[in-house]
Write a structure and sequence with these properties.
By secondary structure, the protein is of the alpha/beta class. A hairpin with a 2-residue loop joins strand 18 and strand 19. Helix 9 packs parallel to helix 10. The longest helix has 21 residues.
Length: about 475
């Protein structure tokens, strides 16, 4: 079985992305901190930080960061559980404090749209980006090949480095990364990280809009005509209250439909980021799923969405025994609730996908494109930065994870035990033709002690889906 899958990887790394790729709207500068003992010690030395006060907080009740002890509580909890965590920094006065405490930071491109645009350009895809705030510093972090749409007297695409707006504010997010097996000392309490992951502390400066603004809106059909596949992100910034939420979702829907008038075959992917308000999140997902084709989410995030929609059985199953089969059951339940035709869960060591029939790509193509995406992500994990086509050949030398191969076998055995019609060659093919859906379990690479975890989900989803759409275009 391992040999069959490895041969597929050797073939997958030769793929190219020939689709025209668009990325919007969430871009920012990431201030990346690699957490170590010294940085935590410096954090705890701050006279305004009280570890007793931080320990007394219920992390589950912290929806935004307003003071220092809330931040300490969230970071300590994430380190101990090895989980990814995203939360908004409401009190922007803390930015100067973060600058002082974490002086060893590295500033990089951030935001789903920014990361995807650069990665697609690195893979030599024609790439267009749009973001409402484009400061000079933000523009300088894009690859020079990335294009930006402008509409003054007429519509045109220009290099993003030439498109910056001098008066635009900078959006900055703090990323706290940590490796597996690192021991941290919280005033005598030892916290050991069970896996590599990160905490994202996001900001929302005035003027940031997760959508199209200004004159470009009148030229969306022209823009759409230049796009094959689009990755749109940032909808987690949607207003929580009415009538703002309804108005925003109306604008989103209208913009997408205008894009599609320029190209009815355009494919849209939404990469999930949680919202603080779950009621608003349900509205956003229910609305967006009617306009989008593909949805990307990880194993932690799907639990949140399932719980938000009231699917407690599937939520509990994943919490108590996270495995490919429990993730599939959760994805299927959400597919029945929402309207996506492609649901992609990326977990450590394997991916689970549910495709609604009729699907434009053969499931074998989707599977092999997932191996391409895993290969891109493996190189990123090993070396950091953005992965070029020339680097991909090395990924063919990496073995797929034992975890992922084992999940294939366990999925097959559980389906058989339940009397389901799963094919006997499932472990070799990873494909189950299941009524109205195809179900895929694809083993992926795991790189020990990755150089970076920021943007892994974005890298996986964009590389998988853009290469898949290239195959769809080639088959027309």
């Amino acid at each position: 079985m391992e040999t069959v899958w490895q041969r597929r990887v050797e073939s997958a790394v030769k793929k190219s992305i020939r689709s025209s790729v668009f990325a919007g709207f969430n871009t920012n500068v990431d201030a990346v901190v690699h957490c170590n003992g010294d940085s935590i010690a410096k954090l705890l030395r701050d006279p305004d930080v009280s570890l007793d006060a931080a320990n007394a907080l219920d992390v589950g009740q912290i929806d935004t960061i307003r003071e220092k002890n809330q931040f300490v509580a969230v970071l300590k909890d994430a380190l101990g559980k090895g989980k990814s965590f995203y939360i908004v920094l409401e009190n922007l006065d803390l930015l100067d404090w973060l600058d002082e405490v974490f002086s060893n930071r590295q500033e990089l491109m951030g935001g789903q749209a920014g990361i995807i645009a650069n990665q697609m350009a690195a893979l030599e895809a024609k790439t267009i980006v749009y973001t409402s705030l484009l400061s000079k510093k933000q523009a300088s972090l894009f690859f020079p090949e990335v294009l930006y749409p402008v509409a003054a007297e007429d519509f045109k695409l220009i290099p993003v480095h030439e498109a910056y707006k001098p008066d635009d504010q900078l959006k900055i997010n703090w990323i706290f990364e940590y490796a597996k097996g690192i021991e941290f000392d919280f005033d005598g309490e030892k916290v050991i990280t069970p896996r590599a992951n990160r905490v994202i502390l996001a900001t929302r400066p005035p003027g940031v809009v997760m959508g199209f603004t200004g004159a470009i809106h009148d030229h969306l059909p022209e823009l759409g005509s230049k796009i094959d596949v689009a990755f749109l992100a940032g909808y987690h910034y949607a207003p929580r209250e009415e009538p703002g939420l309804t108005e925003y979702l109306g604008e989103v829907t209208n913009s997408i439909r205008l894009l599609k008038t320029g190209n009815p075959n355009i494919r849209l992917h939404y990469e999930y980021v949680p919202m603080a308000d779950q009621a608003a999140e349900k509205r956003v997902l229910a609305t967006i799923s009617r306009e989008f084709d593909s949805f990307g989410i990880n194993e932690n995030e799907i639990r949140r969405v399932l719980k938000g929609f009231g699917y407690n059985e599937e939520y509990t199953d994943i919490v108590e025994n996270e495995r490919a089969f429990s993730l599939y059951r959760g994805a299927l339940r959400l597919m029945e609730q929402l309207h996506f035709s492609r649901f992609h869960i990326h977990n450590l060591g394997y991916y689970v996908l549910v495709l609604k029939k009729p699907y434009p790509a053969a499931p074998e193509v989707v599977r092999d494109c997932c191996l391409f995406g895993s290969s891109v992500n493996a190189i990123k994990a090993k070396y950091g930065g953005y992965v070029t086509k020339a680097q991909l050949a090395e990924a063919a030398e990496f073995g797929l994870s034992d975890l992922g191969l084992r999940q294939l076998r366990l999925f097959y055995e559980e389906a058989k035990q339940k009397g389901l019609d799963i094919p006997d060659n499932f472990c070799e093919e990873g494909i189950w033709d299941h009524g109205e859906y195809y179900v895929l379990v694809v083993p992926a690479h795991v790189i020990p002690n990755p150089v970076s975890t920021v943007g892994m989900g974005d890298t996986i989803s964009s590389s998988c889906y853009a290469s898949e759409h290239t195959s769809v275009l080639a088959s027309r």
